UniProtKB/TrEMBL annotation:
InterPro entries: AAA+_ATPase (IPR003593), ABC_transporter-like_ATP-bd (IPR003439), ABC_transporter-like_CS (IPR017871), ABC_transpr_TagH-like (IPR015860), Bact_Polysacc_Export_ATP-bd (IPR050683), P-loop_NTPase (IPR027417). Keywords: ATP-binding, Nucleotide-binding, Transport. The keyword Glycosyltransferase does not apply. GO terms for molecular function: ABC-type transporter activity; ATP binding; ATP hydrolysis activity. This is ABC transporter domain-containing protein. CDD domains: ABC_KpsT_Wzt. Pfam families: ABC_tran. The keyword ATP-binding applies. GO terms for cellular component: membrane. Belongs to the ABC transporter superfamily. It comes from the Bacteria. Residues 48-269 form the ABC transporter domain.
Length: 306
């Protein structure tokens, strides 16, 4: 990952990106996985295939999680990523955070992204408060900076007396509060939240939202994965819908969520054909917009738009 370009092709309706914090450039991710049920088999040499068969090992198949994803996120944006289970949201967040190398394509980031639960590992036997301190130190803060920040972090985590209990006594929601507070301690420029606030109660969600707003006001950006449309509607200034590893829509939260909810409703009702037609139409509209944004050269064979 590097902090190179200030402009890039964008999946958004605007052609120019003024202050990009993250640029995802034509990213494709293909996992390989063993499968007993067939699929797109990874070619292996004949001896390897025979040896695997003799040992009773299932064939290895390709699973394409992301296909040619291109988008840019600007400073100050809070972008919600929505989509069905297995559509590729977490894979994209893992690529952006640097946890996973894409099969092809690149990610450019203006700073090292902070991904909740990744930058620090917490110690179950230690109290929440000790873990908070250690987590901050692990992210490069000085002891004096940690001291100055502790009251604010304890307020954000809203754990009351449990802040002094060992973390092994925490529920998953309580641990999520603490991890969220630690992840935001350094005022990250790029914060990735993959299903982070959903585990918390209303009080934590309010404090979490307030903290995210502060980060945005300091020119930070937030990438936010959630299955809760209510949460996405209140938290995000823009929404990206991903399905089967491809961008389907990218724009105003109200517009994108309305189509996505119709899509999900149709699928739930068994109207797969109309759901998929709606999705394909939305995806084609996005491609047309990107091509128009990129100008006439992109519409020519060999142009830059996919
Ligand atoms: N480590 C892995 N090895 C093989 N395939 C994987 C791996 N991780 C994810 N996948 C596959 O990649 C695809 C996208 O998964 P991903 O977890 O990114 O989806 P998601 O949109 O975050 O799903 P969810 O909403 O259920 O969390 C799925 O087909 C999944 O099976």
């Amino acid at each position: 990952m590097s902090a190179e370009p200030r402009t890039a092709p964008s999946g958004r309706r605007r052609a120019t990106v003024r202050n990009p914090a993250v640029v995802v450039d034509d990213v494709t991710v293909v996992y390989t996985v063993t499968s007993t049920g067939g699929g797109d088999e990874v070619p292996v040499s004949a001896p390897v295939r025979l040896a695997r068969r003799a040992l009773g090992r299932p064939p290895i198949v390709r699973n394409q999680a992301l296909t040619n994803i291109t988008l840019a996120v600007e400073e100050g944006e809070s972008v919600g990523f929505i989509g069905r289970n297995g559509s590729g949201k977490s894979t994209l967040m893992n690529v952006i955070s640097g946890q996973l190398n894409p099969t092809s394509g690149r990610v450019y980031a203006a700073d090292v992204p902070a991904k909740l639960g990744v930058n620090v590992s917490l110690v179950p036997a230690l109290s929440g408060e000790r873990n908070m301190r250690l987590g901050c130190l692990a992210q490069g803060m000085t002891p004096a900076e940690v001291d100055a920040k502790m009251d604010e972090l304890i307020h954000i985590a809203a754990l009351d007396k449990a802040i002094h209990w060992p973390m092994k006594a925490y529920s998953s929601g309580m641990a999520a509060r603490l991890r969220f507070a630690v992840a935001t301690a350094t005022d990250p420029h790029i914060l990735i939240l993959d299903e982070a606030l959903g585990t918390g109660d209303a009080q934590f969600q309010d404090r979490g939202k307030a903290r995210m707003q502060e980060i945005r006001e300091q020119a930070g950006c937030i990438l936010f994965v959630s299955h809760s449309m209510a949460e996405v509607r209140t938290m995000c200034s823009r929404v990206v819908w991903i399905d089967e590893g491809e961008l389907v829509m990218d724009g105003d939260p109200g517009d994108v969520i309305a189509v996505y909810e119709r899509f999900m409703k149709d699928l739930a009702a068994g109207n797969n054909k109309s759901a998929l037609a709606m999705r394909d139409e939305a995806r084609e509209a996005l491609v047309r917009t990107v091509v128009a944004d990129l100008g006439p050269s992109a519409a020519q064979p060999g142009g830059t738009a996919a």
